[in-house]
Amino acid sequence: MSSHKPTPQFELAGVNAMLVRMGNQMRSEMPTYLKQIRDLLLRDYGELITQVTPAYNTLLVEYDPRACRMYDLQQLLEKVLAEMPYEENASCRKLVEIPVCYAASYAPDLEQVARHCKLTTDEVIEIHRATDYQVYALGFAPGFAYLGELDKRLQVPRLDTPRQQVPAGAVAIAEQQTAVYPSQSPGGWNLIGFSPMQWFNWQEEPMTPVEVGDCVRFVKVSEAEMKSLEKQGMPRT
């Protein structure tokens, strides 16, 4: 247990929700810590709390105002946070391996990223896949997982002009984060690869293969391997 546990700050977030902010900086152990709190709240106080959403260094707690007052909710959260152990450098609870093809035909921004970072394309690929990324948040689009932290050598700005359409499965980087687009959508991140893995399915439970507190490892595959996985209809892990 660490003595550096951030001091929580509580903010109203509508008539039936409270936002808990754990410090002002993102820490590597924070996703695991927030997930533990979420699981405990839903397990032990499900009659009061309807939904808990962790993201970066915050926790959005929604509750039933017929069963609990805002003041009582804050007291409950203060108690839970005080008692929950906080471990620095806590490990991820689950590791999900994601196949990625970095072939030029699937990576329209790879050369541009390499030039910006003063690296070769092979170096960009090796650096990108050498890190196990934590899931910081889910948002923007259903199943879009913000993964970090990206190696400083690969931190590039977003595109000046976002694309109107980014294909589902596109692997992208921007600033300190990387992600896989779960569905076709507009997007302004730099596309450096493609994954055939299904990232979001509203008919399944859970709908995404990862949640906050998990880790993602990108595994390089050849173009032939990627096409084979696509034909097989690669399932989620």
Concise overview:
Helix content is 24%, strand content 30%. With 237 residues, the protein is of the alpha+beta class. Keywords: ATP-binding, Hydrolase, Nucleotide-binding.
Please tell me about this protein's structure.
This protein is α+β, with helices and mostly antiparallel strands and about 240 residues long. The chain folds into two domains: about 10-85, 2-Layer Sandwich (Gyrase A, domain 2), CATH 3.30.1360.40; about 95-230, Cyclophilin-like (Cyclophilin, Beta Barrel). Helix content is about 25%, strand content about 30%. The chain is built from five helices and 13 strands. The protein has helices at about 30-45, 70-85, 110-115, 120-130, 225-230, and strands spanning about 10, 15-20, 50-55, 60-65, 95-100, 130-140, 145-150, 165, 170-175, 175-180, 185, 190-195, 215-220. The strands form four sheets. A four-stranded antiparallel sheet has the order 1-2-4-3. Strand 1 (about 10) and strand 2 (about 15-20) form a beta hairpin. It is elongated, with a radius of gyration of 19 Å. The mean pLDDT is about 90.
